[in-house]
């Protein structure tokens, strides 16, 4: 089993190269081994492109070696036609005799069907290697298909005395937006944005800061912007409506004449648990992961409803003495790391 773990670990290393580009597909890694040597490797191409198994097989120069090889893959090979043909059929076509799979795919179109097809074709299949590591790696994809909602990451910065923003009257003397964290932490946030499908903020955050919610300080695709604007108070001139990336507004206003052209709108019932209603819509949109950047009221709503998976909290060096209190959260502290004058705390909702 140790040799299986070695190559599944390599699959996970390869799969990470697809972070931020493969969604809503999973970021799978694949390794092909013959006579204890890797003869082909691959990971999932950006969405719409080739799957990891296809890229790994294409990387094998001598295809005859496939007849006596073992293929390792972090997630069960697909068994249905999507934008590409089923990977399980490709493995059968090349008569690969042994396949080792990290974890089963929970997608209703797969869910064991790929494994069944391989076994029926006479392939020796092993399932369940480094299960915890594979589940952690595929956490966004698994959350979407198992819980029917995006993987939700909460993010905010707070002062040493526990404030997330200054009071409204302090805005007169302090430039907007006022940064609690340093520029290196800000760059880290832009990196995170490039890794997730969507970013969500509330009305007050947009009105106070007029954010772009893009990845200006990091190479990568900007996330889909999800804006909570119950009464459509945000002016059309604000950055979130600049059409530089897809934007979805969640509102209670049903009058479409008040909508901005080329911006998507969804009506939600604000009298119901709001976080749950938002998750239903994002699931329907195929959004597998979301980073929630505030403000405090929106963050606390998701915390109170128990709809979050990870919290990334920066604690800056400054004190406000008064202001808007940071959200209250209870979770398992996974790591603490310094970023110059800031400290980054990462919690998980276990």
UniProtKB/TrEMBL annotation:
SUPFAM superfamilies documented for this protein: Cytidine deaminase-like (SSF53927), Dihydrofolate reductase-like (SSF53597)
Reactions accelerated catalytically: 2,5-diamino-6-hydroxy-4-(5-phosphoribosylamino)-pyrimidine + H2O + H(+) = 5-amino-6-(5-phospho-D-ribosylamino)uracil + NH4(+); 5-amino-6-(5-phospho-D-ribitylamino)uracil + NADP(+) = 5-amino-6-(5-phospho-D-ribosylamino)uracil + NADPH + H(+)
Binding sites annotated in the UniProt record for Zn(2+): 51, 78, 87
Ion transport keyword on record: no
Binding site for NADP(+): 157, 179, 205, 209
Superkingdom: Bacteria
UniProt remark on cofactor binding: Binds 1 zinc ion.
Domain CMP/dCMP-type deaminase: start-end pairs: 2-126
One MF annotation (Gene Ontology) recorded for this entry: zinc ion binding
Reported function: Converts 2,5-diamino-6-(ribosylamino)-4(3h)-pyrimidinone 5'-phosphate into 5-amino-6-(ribosylamino)-2,4(1h,3h)-pyrimidinedione 5'-phosphate.
Protein's name according to its UniProt entry: Riboflavin biosynthesis protein RibD
């Amino acid at each position: 089993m140790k040799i299986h773990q070695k190559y599944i670990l390599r699959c996970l290393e390869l799969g990470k190269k697809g972070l931020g580009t493969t969604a809503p597909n999973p970021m799978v890694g694949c390794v092909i081994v013959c006579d204890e040597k890797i003869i082909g490797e691959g990971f999932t191409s950006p969405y719409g492109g080739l799957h990891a198994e296809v890229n790994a097989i294409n990387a094998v120069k001598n295809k005859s070696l496939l007849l006596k090889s073992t293929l390792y893959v972090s997630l069960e090979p697909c068994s249905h036609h999507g934008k590409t043909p089923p990977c399980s059929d490709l493995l059968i076509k090349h008569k690969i005799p042994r396949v080792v799979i990290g974890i089963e795919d929970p997608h209703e179109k797969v869910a064991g069907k790929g494994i069944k097809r391989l076994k029926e074709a006479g392939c020796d299949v092993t399932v369940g290697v480094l299960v915890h590591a594979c589940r952690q790696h595929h956490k966004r994809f698994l959350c979407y298909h198992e819980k029917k909602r995006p993987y939700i990451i909460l993010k905010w910065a707070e002062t040493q005395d526990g404030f997330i923003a200054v009071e409204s009257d302090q805005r007169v003397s302090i430039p907007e937006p006022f940064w609690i964290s340093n520029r290196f932490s800000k760059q880290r946030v832009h990196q995170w944005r490039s890794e997730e499908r969507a970013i969500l903020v509330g009305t007050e955050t947009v009105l106070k800061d007029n954010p772009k919610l893009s990845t200006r300080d990091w190479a990568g695709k900007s996330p889909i912007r999800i804006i909570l604007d119950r009464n459509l108070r945000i002016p059309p001139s604000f950055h979130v409506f600049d059409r530089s990336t897809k934007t979805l507004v969640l509102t209670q206003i049903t009058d479409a004449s008040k909508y901005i052209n080329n911006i998507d709108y969804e009506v939600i019932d604000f009298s119901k648990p709001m976080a749950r209603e938002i998750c239903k819509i994002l699931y329907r949109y195929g959004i597998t992961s979301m980073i929630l950047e505030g403000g405090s009221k929106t963050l606390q709503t998701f915390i109170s409803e128990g709809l979050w998976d990870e919290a990334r909290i920066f604690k800056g060096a400054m004190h406000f003495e008064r202001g808007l209190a940071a959200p209250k959260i209870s979770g398992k502290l996974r790591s603490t790391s310094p970023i110059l004058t800031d400290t980054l705390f990462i919690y998980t909702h276990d």
